[in-house]
Amino acid sequence: MSATAPPAMANEATKRPGRRALSEGKRAERRLGWLLCAPAAIVMVAVTGWPILYSVWLSLQRYDLRFPNQREFVGLANYATVLTNSYWWQAFGVTSLITVLSVVIELVLGMALALVMHWAFVGRGLVRTVTLVPYGIVTVVAAFSWRYAWSQDVGYLARLFSPEGAPLTERASALAIIVLAEVWKTTPFMALLLMAGLALVPSELLRAAAMDGASAWQRFTKVIVPVMRPAILVALLFRTLDAFRIFDNVFVLTAGSQGTSSVSMLTFNNLIRGLNLGIGATMSVLIFLAVAAIAFVFVKVFGTAAPGSEKEGRR
Amino acid sequence: MAEIVLDKVSKRYPDGAVAVRDVDVEIADGEFVILVGPSGCGKSTTLNMIAGLEDITSGELRIGGQRMNERAPKDRDIAMVFQSYALYPHMTVRENMAFPLRLAKVDKETVRRKVEEAARVLDLTQHLDRRPANLSGGQRQRVAMGRAIVRNPKAFLMDEPLSNLDAKLRVQMRTEVSRLQKKLGTTTVYVTHDQTEAMTLGDRVVVMRAGVVQQVGSPQFLYDHPANLFVAGFIGSPSMNFVPAGVEEGVLRGPLGDIPLTDRVRRLLTEAKAPREVIMGVRPEHFEDAALVEEHARAAGVVHRAQVDVLESMGSDKYAYFSLGGERARSAELEELAADVGIADLSSSGAGSLVTRLSAASGAREGEPVEVWFDPDKVQLFDPSSGRNLTYSGD
Amino acid sequence: MVLEVPDRRMSPEARRRAKWWFVNAVVVVYALLPVLWIVSLSFKTKETITDGRLLPREWTLENYRAIFGTSDFVRALVNSVGIALISTTIAVVLGTMAAYAIARLDFPGKRALVGVSLLIAMFPQVSLVSPLFEMERGLGLFDTWPGLILPYITFALPLAIYTLSAFFREIPWELEKAAKMDGATPAQAFLKVIAPLAAPGVFTTAILVFIFCWNDFLFALSLTSTERSRTVPAAMSFFSGSSQFEDPTGTTCAAAVVISVPIIVFVLFFQRRIVAGLTSGAVKG
């Protein structure tokens, strides 16, 4: 009321130290924040930022460890080599195919599994527990299990489904098995993410929809899915990026033979087996760009809220 | 000796927002003072400044005569009860209550004795070894109180301690808090947004709005002599009725008809240099069914005849709602009150409305006309631009 | 027709129950079959390993004896455990510090940090293999423990920061105020009130990070060349090419079981925490 015009002189003395103390507290908070984050930030930037720049530099050179003397700067020649190479495009197509197929199947299965875990009224604990087994298994171990299940002489599944052929040596069936292995391993993770999203759907909303005459399927498509949309998108984003870098399963199941190589597999082969650093680095950069493009599409086109990008909660 | 003095205490945030402005309150030793106001009025900030959980931007806080501005909370010797109770979930009730004593390095035997004493007072003895998660809301609240009282602090600070309880328990705990405070005689500052709590608990009430103290006084005084529109509307339930009126030749002209001004009111208006257009305030409980008023009283008062919109029978009384023709009263303070209390009809409908509290014997019926009577001397008049009470005779 | 007979006798409640048990059974088979298969193979004798039967006709520990009899596997196991434990410890310590700052403090650059760690979480690891391969050879880190620990920490940090800051945000910080009012110094408030509440979150994060490091294959394959620092997943892939075992199937499976069983037991034991940890970072907000 009348307090809007305090006598300036009298207040000046008391106000100043107060203000300084406040900004000092603020500064101390900042300093502490930086101090606490610095080690993590330094490690992350040092191990990724610097190498990625180095990778770009390597990709502009002819650099084959078998012929180290021929190292020279070649500009974008490596990119031209890779981008006109049919193996690269085949690997790119295979990777995209595996990514799309496995993510779509995972979404469907994961959603089903999430619904089961959320609503099963018997044995819910059992299902939740068992679901974590694929998550806990080392990918390579699971891949070996699938390899032995489908290899001609050892496998029970091979005997069951194709007694004559060798599924892992034919391109289509080999790809199908890679997708199967990928789906098996990561569906639980998808299901858990979706289940967490499902828990955010208020049960009252579903009861209201039921009262409004919505069938179970309508409740799912008209209420559950729209409410869960952010959770679904985040799960899809995570899994798409993860599937795009598929390596372990391909390496163990087919080692990239019969045209089943993924881009990661191809890069690895050029780099570690072929020791061609220039080409390997070029492929690294291209994969990085592809992943960035996928993330960009998800975030900008679908409006996926990247976790952590929300306003942080204050005390 | 634990009086709490707030001397021109202000809180300004780095972004320039002022949360609390020049609060001057002196709280005597053993007094129970309530800080009340709508959310965001600065009452919790004020409490946190007393606690030491927020810095004081300017002004001085003295507890027991000593400047406290720079002291850490732990060195102020005051205890606090939080709205969420803030019980340590990993400790039992006993450990929760013993925590402040253990920090103060009190010997084990004394801790045990004091905790058990407090538990006995608060009826928590059989729950001492349980965890907060296994307690009911009321029990948790009592544990929070227990943690505050075990170390006999100079003062208690309570931040909406009852607002997480259901209505019935809240009333019960309200008397409990009051009884406990009287028994211990410890200076208490209590923050609430609930005017009923403010009226029933406090020795004195500090009404705040937008960081500024509006009025300080005993509950009855605030009720009888509100300093402005805001206090008038905030204190009392249901809220005071506000209708626009014009002062003309000793008569108050408005939707309730022509009301003759009493000598007292006329004198106050002249002293206050009142404008022509005013806002008239009448409390619902100052109305009565005209049929139940004795003849001579009836003649001295004003009778208004109107059709009852809605009638609510509370058993002990009847609330009759009327709609009034013409514009409703407008002022910034009323808007804020309406927004805070959620009175939709104050803000949404263009026309004013009137709430009256009649005795249970009234024959008023919904949809039928009834005559209501009120004493014109109970009318309060406010300046629409400043909100000032023109009929204020408090000092 | 055949199915209808029990149906008629069952109450609707029992029928629903049966339906759910059927669904559960499908899930259980789906999740466990590959695991049982590899366990079964690991117990089969050389003669019966190609019989394609789900259960071994004769049980043998020969495969386990074989892998523990070679330095190849034992050394790899030591590497795996050591590297994963060290990486987990460092990542969790650094992650806890950063997550506390992100959840509790206000400072410029916070969102940038969150953004960077998100980028790294989505980063294609293979993009780092080429430069790291070259750089580590230059720095003498190639085929050493630190050579693997460094990238593991880096890729585990985003996971740790997300999970932990989600946990930290759940802590009712009013308790810290309450502790101060109860007479605690800031250090006491942290040690006696906040730390006990944060411990489960830190523990859960440690499990997730450990599983992440334990699972890695690409770095282990690319940045090592000898048994000096090769971890089990990488070593397993060399079983097949090596002439040491004439038929590597049994021994590979035995190695697979050895590195899987402890993790599975751990995961099942701390099931609830892991579910909370996996989902909190990703879905909240």
Automatic annotation (TrEMBL), chain A:
<dbReference type="GO" id="GO:0005886">
    <property type="term" value="C:plasma membrane"/>
</dbReference>
<keyword id="KW-1133">Transmembrane helix</keyword>
<protein>
    <submittedName>
        <fullName>Carbohydrate ABC transporter membrane protein 1, CUT1 family</fullName>
    </submittedName>
</protein>
<feature type="transmembrane region" description="Helical">
    <location>
        <begin position="220"/>
        <end position="238"/>
    </location>
</feature>
<keyword id="KW-0812">Transmembrane</keyword>
<feature type="transmembrane region" description="Helical">
    <location>
        <begin position="87"/>
        <end position="120"/>
    </location>
</feature>
<keyword id="KW-0813">Transport</keyword>
<feature type="transmembrane region" description="Helical">
    <location>
        <begin position="32"/>
        <end position="57"/>
    </location>
</feature>
<feature type="transmembrane region" description="Helical">
    <location>
        <begin position="132"/>
        <end position="150"/>
    </location>
</feature>
<dbReference type="InterPro" id="IPR052730">
    <property type="entry name" value="Sugar_ABC_transporter"/>
</dbReference>
<dbReference type="GO" id="GO:0055085">
    <property type="term" value="P:transmembrane transport"/>
</dbReference>
<dbReference type="InterPro" id="IPR035906">
    <property type="entry name" value="MetI-like_sf"/>
</dbReference>
<feature type="region of interest" description="Disordered">
    <location>
        <begin position="1"/>
        <end position="24"/>
    </location>
</feature>
<comment type="similarity">
    <text>Belongs to the binding-protein-dependent transport system permease family.</text>
</comment>
<dbReference type="InterPro" id="IPR000515">
    <property type="entry name" value="MetI-like"/>
</dbReference>
UniProtKB/TrEMBL annotation, chain B:
<dbReference type="InterPro" id="IPR040582">
    <property type="entry name" value="OB_MalK-like"/>
</dbReference>
<keyword id="KW-0547">Nucleotide-binding</keyword>
<keyword id="KW-0067">ATP-binding</keyword>
<keyword id="KW-1278">Translocase</keyword>
<dbReference type="GO" id="GO:0140359">
    <property type="term" value="F:ABC-type transporter activity"/>
</dbReference>
<dbReference type="Pfam" id="PF17912">
    <property type="entry name" value="OB_MalK"/>
</dbReference>
<dbReference type="Pfam" id="PF00005">
    <property type="entry name" value="ABC_tran"/>
</dbReference>
<dbReference type="InterPro" id="IPR003439">
    <property type="entry name" value="ABC_transporter-like_ATP-bd"/>
</dbReference>
<dbReference type="InterPro" id="IPR017871">
    <property type="entry name" value="ABC_transporter-like_CS"/>
</dbReference>
<dbReference type="InterPro" id="IPR012340">
    <property type="entry name" value="NA-bd_OB-fold"/>
</dbReference>
<dbReference type="GO" id="GO:0005524">
    <property type="term" value="F:ATP binding"/>
</dbReference>
<feature type="domain" description="ABC transporter">
    <location>
        <begin position="4"/>
        <end position="235"/>
    </location>
</feature>
<dbReference type="GO" id="GO:0008643">
    <property type="term" value="P:carbohydrate transport"/>
</dbReference>
<keyword id="KW-0813">Transport</keyword>
<dbReference type="GO" id="GO:0016887">
    <property type="term" value="F:ATP hydrolysis activity"/>
</dbReference>
From TrEMBL, chain C:
<feature type="transmembrane region" description="Helical">
    <location>
        <begin position="249"/>
        <end position="270"/>
    </location>
</feature>
<keyword id="KW-0812">Transmembrane</keyword>
<keyword id="KW-1133">Transmembrane helix</keyword>
<protein>
    <submittedName>
        <fullName>Carbohydrate ABC transporter membrane protein 2, CUT1 family</fullName>
    </submittedName>
</protein>
<keyword id="KW-1003">Cell membrane</keyword>
<dbReference type="InterPro" id="IPR000515">
    <property type="entry name" value="MetI-like"/>
</dbReference>
<feature type="transmembrane region" description="Helical">
    <location>
        <begin position="145"/>
        <end position="168"/>
    </location>
</feature>
<dbReference type="GO" id="GO:0005886">
    <property type="term" value="C:plasma membrane"/>
</dbReference>
<comment type="similarity">
    <text>Belongs to the binding-protein-dependent transport system permease family.</text>
</comment>
<feature type="transmembrane region" description="Helical">
    <location>
        <begin position="189"/>
        <end position="212"/>
    </location>
</feature>
<dbReference type="GO" id="GO:0055085">
    <property type="term" value="P:transmembrane transport"/>
</dbReference>
<dbReference type="Pfam" id="PF00528">
    <property type="entry name" value="BPD_transp_1"/>
</dbReference>
<feature type="transmembrane region" description="Helical">
    <location>
        <begin position="112"/>
        <end position="133"/>
    </location>
</feature>
<feature type="domain" description="ABC transmembrane type-1">
    <location>
        <begin position="77"/>
        <end position="270"/>
    </location>
</feature>
<keyword id="KW-0813">Transport</keyword>
